[in-house]
Amino acid sequence: MHRxxxxxxxxxxxxxxxxxxxxxxxxERTVAQGVVGVAAAALSAASGMPExxxxxxxPSVMAVLAPTMDALGxxxxxxxx
Length: 81
Hints:
By secondary structure, this protein is mainly alpha-helical. 84% of the residues lie in helices and 0% in strands.
């Protein structure tokens, strides 16, 4: 039997995570969005960007990630039907 690559396993795990509508998975996705947003803000601060820019990076990243993850989850669910 052919063994799945680590990329394929990660992709399948990510897909399953997006399709999971449990309260725990929703909480995990919210936390992940926050972590990515804060990391992006920290990178912009470390790179010397102005404070006003750094202050809008995290909410902007979260504003993009939330609907993107939702759309991916809906698309994957529709494809799986």
